[in-house]
Amino acid sequence: MKAGSRFLNAVSAVALSAGVVATGSTVVTLASATAAQAAVIQRVDVRGATRASSETVRANITIVPGKTFSNSDIDESVRRLFSTGYFSDVRITVSGSTLVVSVSENKLVNQVVFNGNKKIKDEKLSPIVKTQPLGPYSETALQGDIQAIRDAYSAIGRSDVQVTTQVVPIGEGRVNVAFAINEGERTKISSINFVGNEAYSNSRLEAVIVTKESGLLSFLTRKDVYSEEKLRADEELLRQFYYNRGYADFRVVSSNAVLDETTNQYVITYTLEEGKRYDFGDVNVESTVEGVNADELKGLVETRAGRVYSAKDVQESISNISKRVAAEGYPFARVTPRGNRNFETNTIAVDYLVDQGERAYVERIEIRGNTRTRDYVIRREFDMSEGDAFNQEMIARAKRRLEALGYFSSVNITTAQGSAGDRVVIVVDVQDQSTGSFGIGAGYATGNNSGVLLEASVEEKNFLGRGQFIRVAAGGGKDTRTYNVSFTEPYFLGYRLAAGFDVFANENDYEDNYSYEDRGFSLRVTAPITEKLSTTLRYNYTSLEYKTGNLTTVSTPFRNLVGRDLVRSSVSQSFTYNTLDDATLPREGIIATFTHEFAGLGGDSDFYKISGKAKIFQSLNDEADIIGSLSGSAGHVFATNDNLYVYDQFMIGGNEVRGFERNGIGPRILSSNGVALRDAVGGTTYFAASAEATFPIPGIARDAGFRGAVFADAGTLYGNDTVIGSDTLVGSSSALRASVGLGVIWASPFGPLRFDYAFPIAKEDYDKTQNFKFGMSSQF
Predict the structure, then answer these.
(1) Do residues 653 and 660 touch, judged by C-beta distance below 8 A?
(2) Using CA of residue 152, residue 156, residue 161, residue 164, what is the dihedral sign?
(3) What fold, for 436-776?
């Protein structure tokens, strides 16, 4: 008997028995509903329960001996008993002063096994099925489990998976359940087509969306897995792309995916309507809120007349004005943009209206869909809590923060009416995604210390669902060994303070002359100043030990360090400003840091050091996807007590000016006998600058992740404040070094890799060059 019919039978039994009470030893049917609602029983008799105890049955009914009950109590009791999943049939009757609860028990699951699964292991499938060992057996639950397994396989690109079940009775009302899985072949995407696009090519739009065509490395990236959710997300990415480039009338007419069952491949087609391209017209701010001066808010507007229309700039303007107005004591103020299109001039005039919104308060924040991430990790990204004034801009800001965490594949925030007209329920729907990664990095060094450098790392951005970051890395080459452990708690003590530590150990041999080991740790805390500006305080501790095999071949600055246990103890502060539009492949924005450090809190080092770096990105040709960047860096250090140690000075080379070895630029030692030892001793001052343009490589599909680069670098390192002794210092002038070159950048599944070939066009005699270099790529 199916659950639905069993429930109807139970309800029928209730209807027949609800109006009976005992008079003496005779059962009499009451004629009125009113009398039935006054019924009272003295005891509950449970029949048919063997595995589930009588106490379990009594605990799931609302009728209590000695208290009156009604038809609705019987209905609710039946529903509760069915909802436990333990029973296939439930009947409630009244006999005299006794409530008789008769149940038929479901079979009990003894064991659940999965057969035929290779791509998804048992430990991944077990949590997603409701049928569990020692739990009740339900045909309805079993059908739901089959669909859940199919969904799990669809998420990894195996939509044609087949799932069947086998139920084997083993006696005493127990069964074994087996899921037989035929995983099938992986479903791929043969092509992605765009119809109606004129302003941008297919290849440019393919770079915008997340879904990619199947390729050689798709089995690693998994970007060729089709899903309806990804299709909708890609539609939104296309809208934002066009809206931020002046196409305010853009719309996705349709999007569909057609599966060719003969090849098991999808063909995805987007039909677009671009519309006209607009510039900003007149921009104004108006206010109807008493006490809010519209003229003072105009400086917060990101949109400017004559610029290309951008929905992102409009949103940032709304955010800036909302934060200012709320800070001035108007929590219910609302900022509404009003656009007025001029079809003759292709401009959109924007008026930002500040008015008094409805007085509403947050009743509760409801979190749904998170299976791994803790509720509080999501809740803390809101600048409001239960009881606070409702503000739509704060909701939008929280959504941006949640998306930026990288913990979720989708974030959707909606509102619902609360228990009163001025109460709002905020509903947050999220979907967790994998946040762990394993990386392999590689590099190559030339010169006397030539060889391959390798690094392996394990990283988790959402450790145990708590939002904590942890990374463990180890690397090495012919003459180097490196070990690093990092941990960050993003909300230290419940505040928006990112506190953490870094522990490291390094071993280096240098040209058979000397070797050194440094070990230490750093304690840090980062606090936001604004949405784009933050500051970090650090305490740094490093222990250094220098060793040598032949003192006669080691220059004085290093010979003076041999055999000593050296300690550097310092505090530093950094400021970071970041407006990049994308952390992986930025096309617009600025990232800049400024750091000052003081050493002298015990230990051997005594200095004050300042340094800074800034890099700006700008799209030079949107259709061709050519991105330009300019960067500059500088630093200066001076001793606060006697001289500097060699390891306290700046060292620069191929990381700042490509075409040179690491530490290949700047002051070096020439021995008194005229033989160049070429030990780099660093300098007190440096400057560096770089100009670069990156572009898709012709003839290679953009989905492959390859980009070319042309660049020009320049820099210098000079000054010295170490003890030289009888050795001669060379290359300490501020002469400029420069290079030009070509590069290839690959967004590989193992992380961004970069290959550069640079040719020095200005150098000093004692500099060390290195034309070819490859390693992990970094934007900063």
Answers:
(1) yes
(2) negative
(3) Porin (2.40.160)
Cα dist from 62 to 67, 72, 75, 81, 717, whole Å = 10, 10, 10, 10, 83
| Superfamily of chain region 3-105 | membrane protein fhac (3.10.20.310)
CA–CA gap between residue 250 and residue 242 (Å, rounded): 7
Specify which residues 279 forms β-bridges with: 308, 347
Kind plus residue range of the DSSP H or E element containing 442: strand 436-445
Contact (CB, 8 A) for 377 and 466: yes
Q: Is 217 helix (H, G, I), strand (E, B) or coil?
A: coil
Residues of the chain with CATH 2.40.160.50: 436-776
In angstroms, rounded to a whole number, what is the distance separating the alpha carbons of residues 22 and 39?
A: 9
* β-strands 188-195, 251-260 pairing: unpaired
Q: How far is CA 761 from CA 153, 586, 658, 738, in A?
A: 56, 29, 11, 6
Burial class (CB in 10 A: 0-12, 13-18, 19+), 413: middle
Tell me the C-alpha to C-alpha distance, in Å, between residue 384 and each of 265, 289, 344, 428. Answer: 46, 22, 44, 14
Output the CATH code of domain 361-432. 3.10.20.310
Residue 640: both structure tokens together:
């606060």
């949103």: which residue's tokens? 315
Q: Compute the distance between CA of residue 524 and CA of residue 521 in angstroms, rounded to an integer.
A: 10
Q: Can you tell me the distance from the alpha carbon of 1 to that of 570, in angstroms, rounded to the nearest whole number?
A: 76
Residue 32: how many CB atoms within 10 A of its CB? Answer: 9
Residues near 309 by Cβ (< 8 Å), separated by ≥ 6?
A: 246, 248, 277, 278, 279, 280, 348
Q: Are strands 98-105 and 87-95 parallel, antiparallel or unpaired?
A: antiparallel
The CATH architecture to which 108-182 belongs is Roll (3.10)
Going from the first residue of the chain to its last (780 residues), give the mean pLDDT of each consecutive group of 10, the final group possibly shorter: 37 35 31 46 86 83 87 88 82 88 86 90 88 85 90 82 90 88 86 93 89 77 80 92 94 91 89 94 90 86 90 90 84 88 93 87 90 90 87 86 86 88 89 77 56 78 92 84 93 91 87 76 94 94 80 72 86 95 88 96 92 96 92 96 89 92 86 64 94 92 86 95 81 91 86 87 89 72
| CATH of range 188-273; options 3.90.1010.10, 2.70.70.10, 3.10.20.310, 3.40.50.2300 | 3.10.20.310
pTM of the model: 0.73
Residues of the chain with CATH 3.10.20.310: 3-105, 108-182, 188-273, 279-356, 361-432
Q: Which CATH class is domain 279-356?
A: alpha beta
**Rounded Cα distance, 129 and 112, in Å:** 10
Neighbours of 743 (CB within 10 A): 20
Question: Which residues sit opposite 548 in a β-bridge?
Answer: 514
Q: What is the DSSP string of 122-145?
A: HHHHGGG-S--TTSBP-HHHHHHH
